[in-house]
């Protein structure tokens, strides 16, 4: 079985989808609907992997009354099709169990025989085609998952294939030959099918385990940050789900991974507000806090405004009634505004929304004779609400201004009338700062998901201090046709 066969099932089980006690900052739970979807993909890809599978040549001989010793060779034994009547997937302490029962398979093959005896000294031979129908076939596998230094180790605990009955239909040949095939070759054909499918399962799990081991422990987001996606703790398997958690925190690019303190003892409900979704992915507010800290420490939360749609604002003449002393000292000089976040933004998830508090220093610079002259700095504390949404496989957001307050931090041009400055700051916030932040937030950051899958019809729920993404998933067409990648999109 190739990795793609079990990838579909294990994506939903290996992606960070857990319920119950959590140790990581990103976690979730898979529903019965998700398990059923994974099972159907598993079966579909499993069938695709064995169809046109060619089995080893079989040779046997038997004594035929009044004829002599007949040597029969079966070749080009090919599985042409498989149909599954019943299947199941279960999780428990022993592992993940996938079982198929009551399956049928159709095989084609070529036969040839030769007979020689003292009655027929010159010997006789013949050849032709045959079809075989295999019924009552059962296939199963049990795998277990363990954390191995931040990666998942996949172990095949049990596997196998059992063939119930088979019937053979000859194209040509005598009736004695048909009986010979049934008597002498029934067990050989059944064993060949069982061994071939079992070997595919074993090979596939080994390849998949190698793929899991190669999953990176960090997702590079940009030149500044990376997302720590190393697994935390061992998966917890219950009778209805599998629980896996990952670190989920932002780190500086190329920063060595270090152990973190995790919020232990927390429980994440599998409920999605009555929505029948496949998975529930929960994100702790510490993920967002770690992002703000990384970008703040890297000096990425500042920018300079030297162009505006209303360029007149960036000239001291426009400020002559608001800040007369500025115009008096620097008449008709161009200006620029330096905006910097003065401390890491505070992010908090409540039961209704995500709140953000951002303290911004707005420094007014005058450009005179090629020199940049800072003249005043106004501190603005902004309270905003963030609407979270899923864009593709990214979690993104959009800020909406709730309220703000201002005070003069320092001035080289004397005392400013803050009541007049207030309206100007409101305009700067609404037309410059928030649009800039929303542009950045709209890009979002990728949620951990195996390549080839996409979130579908996602809904956002707020459960302090978690944001929950309740969603279905869809295997994209290119990957559905057999192309897949090792991990994260």
UniProtKB/TrEMBL annotation:
SMART domains: BPI1, BPI2
Record flagged with keyword Signal: yes
Domain Lipid-binding serum glycoprotein C-terminal: 273-478
Keyword presence, Cell inner membrane: no
Transmembrane regions listed in the UniProt entry: none
InterPro entries in alphabetical order: Bactericidal_perm-incr_a/b_dom (IPR017943), BPI/LBP (IPR030675), BPI/LBP_pln (IPR045897), Lipid-bd_serum_glycop_C (IPR001124), Lipid-bd_serum_glycop_N (IPR017942)
Record's signal peptide: 1-19
Taxonomy, superkingdom: Eukaryota
Domain Lipid-binding serum glycoprotein N-terminal per the UniProt entry, residue ranges: 30-255
Keywords annotated in UniProt: Glycoprotein, Signal
Family: Belongs to the BPI/LBP/Plunc superfamily. BPI/LBP (TC 1.C.40) family.
Protein name in UniProt: BPI/LBP family protein
Taxonomic source organism: Flemingia macrophylla
């Amino acid at each position: 079985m190739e990795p793609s066969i079990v990838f579909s099932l294990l994506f939903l089980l290996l992606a960070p989808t857990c319920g119950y006690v959590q140790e990581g900052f990103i976690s979730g739970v898979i529903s019965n609907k998700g398990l059923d979807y994974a099972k159907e993909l598993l079966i579909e890809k499993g069938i695709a992997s064995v169809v046109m599978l060619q089995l080893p040549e079989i040779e046997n001989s038997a004594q035929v009354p009044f004829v002599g010793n007949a040597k029969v060779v079966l070749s080009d034994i090919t599985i042409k099709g498989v149909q599954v009547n019943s299947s199941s997937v279960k999780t428990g302490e022993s592992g993940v169990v996938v079982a198929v029962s009551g399956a049928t398979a159709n095989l084609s093959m070529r036969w040839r025989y030769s007979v020689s005896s003292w009655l027929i000294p010159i010997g006789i031979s013949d050849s032709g085609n045959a079809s075989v129908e295999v019924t009552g076939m059962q296939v199963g596998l049990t795998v277990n998952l363990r954390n191995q230094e931040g990666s998942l180790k996949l172990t095949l605990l049990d596997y196998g294939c059992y063939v119930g009955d088979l019937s053979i239909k000859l194209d040509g040949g005598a009736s004695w030959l048909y009986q010979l095939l049934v008597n002498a070759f029934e067990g050989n054909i059944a064993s060949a099918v069982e061994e071939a499918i079992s070997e595919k399962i074993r090979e596939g799990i080994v390849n998949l385990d190698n793929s899991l081991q190669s999953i990176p422990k960090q997702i590079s987001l940009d030149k500044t940050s990376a997302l720590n996606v190393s697994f935390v703790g061992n998966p917890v398997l219950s009778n209805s789900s599998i629980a896996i958690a990952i670190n989920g925190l932002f780190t500086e690019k190329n920063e060595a991974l270090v152990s973190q303190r995790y919020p232990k003892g927390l429980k994440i409900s599998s409920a999605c507000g009555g929505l029948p979704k496949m998975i529930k992915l929960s994100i702790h507010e510490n993920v967002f806090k770690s992002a703000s800290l990384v970008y703040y420490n890297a000096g990425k939360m500042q920018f300079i405004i030297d162009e505006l749609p209303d360029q007149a604002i960036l000239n001291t003449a426009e400020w002559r009634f608001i800040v007369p002393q500025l115009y008096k000292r620097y008449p008709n000089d161009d200006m620029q505004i330096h905006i910097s976040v003065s401390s890491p933004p505070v992010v908090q998830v409540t039961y209704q929304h995500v709140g953000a508090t951002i303290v911004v220093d707005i420094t007014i610079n005058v450009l005179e004779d090629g020199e940049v002259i800072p003249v005043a700095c106004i501190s603005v504390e902004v309270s905003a609400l963030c609407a979270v949404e899923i864009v593709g496989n990214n979690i993104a957001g959009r800020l909406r201004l709730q309220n703000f307050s201002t005070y003069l931090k320092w001035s080289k041009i004397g005392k400013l009338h803050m009541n007049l400055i207030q309206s100007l700051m409101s305009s700067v916030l609404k037309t410059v700062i928030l649009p800039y932040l929303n542009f950045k937030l709209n890009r979002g950051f990728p949620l951990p998901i195996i390549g080839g899958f996409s979130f579908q019809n996602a809904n956002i729920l707020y459960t302090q201090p978690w944001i929950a993404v309740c969603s279905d998933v869809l295997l994209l067409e290119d990957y559905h046709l057999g192309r897949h990648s090792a991990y994260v999109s």
